Known about the structure:
The protein has twelve helices and seven strands. By secondary structure, it is α/β, with parallel strands linked by helices. It has a domain at 42-289: Spore Coat Polysaccharide Biosynthesis Protein SpsA, Chain A (Alpha-Beta Complex), CATH 3.90.550. Strands 3-2-1-4-6-5-7 form a seven-stranded mixed sheet, sandwiched between helices. α6 (176-197) crosses α12 (351-374), α10 (283-318) packs across α11 and α10 packs across α12. It is globular. The chain starts with a helix and ends in a 19-residue tail after the last helix. 47% of the residues are buried.
Amino acid sequence: MLELAIAVVVxxxxxxxxxxxxxxxxxxxxxxxxxxxxxxxxxxxxxxSVTITVxxxxxxxxxxxxxxxxxxxxYPRELLxxxxxxxxxxxxxxxxxxxxxxxxxxxxxxxxxxxxxxxENAAVAVASGxxxxxxxxxxxxxxxxxxxxxxxxxxxxxxxASGRDVSVxxxxxxxxxxxxxxxxxxxxVRDLETRAGGSIVGASGCFFAIRRLIHDEPIPVALSWDFAxxxxxxxxxxxxxxxxxxxxLVPATGAMRSEFRRKSRTMARGLSTLFHFRELMNPFRYGxxxxxLISHKLLRWLPYLLAPFSLAALVILAxxxxxGALTLxxxxxxxxxxxYALRQRxxxxxxxxxxxxxxxxxxxxxxxxxxxxxxxxxKVTWSPTPRAGxxxx
Length: 393
């Protein structure tokens, strides 16, 4: 019985250690043995037509700055279309978007709230570009990043190109330490996947591009196009890549509670997307891609499902072993610190406390995401996550 309890306690640690440590190490070793693919020079690219879509809902605090930056992108203007996808916004988002009509910005407003994915599905009918680029309304895309992203499609095997998120720290953010560290790690892993296996298993929701012929069929509204894009591309015989110099500046979340809601929603949608495309986890059919998908996604999310069982087993061990009691005490102290951090409405300047809050928010969000996904709860609509502005950061 105690041996079983020990196994249950360490199970989330084993899964997490493999996904966060062993898997990146394996990728790194492969990159040491495999010759790198040649980098396509931006100057040698024949630029295709591009449609930029910006899904929004009540984003009046961000949309003006975002659209201003998009109109300043270094890309042939006659080949660029910008569409704001308003999910029936009730604030000034739509009127602000209309102010940019003279600069070629179009507004596509949904008659009622149907969610981000529904808006992205509908955009294909009015998109004129060979490549569709999705940009989050809360981020800033530097002028040179679009060309860097689109240059990847000069390789005909590439179906999806993902930008490199740079999480911008800010004194106004309570989650910056954990968020900046996690974002940097995720971008590093995607870079390794691109160099080792030739394909990533999910794109950045803030800034990614997809061939129109891959985007032409709608996906269920409870799924996420950023994750699904790489999966649909693989089914159609294309690979997906991470483009290191296609930078996208992402302000850190301004509050712990906002980070909790965002993580819970994105993980639940991610799990629903993974379940929908579960056939891609079959290594006998999809080979290395399936193993990467299991390693990067399933085993990274599995510890959240195992955590409650691990804690219950740790309580059993604490009654038999001193080490178990000390471990349980440390877990409880960290949990209480996280609860305290989550209850704070202002900035948390003590970094360990902020990290404890970020960790608890992610753990709880992951557990709720599994609960929602397993019972079929659909996360369709969304509300914008409050973030400190890039300029302020």
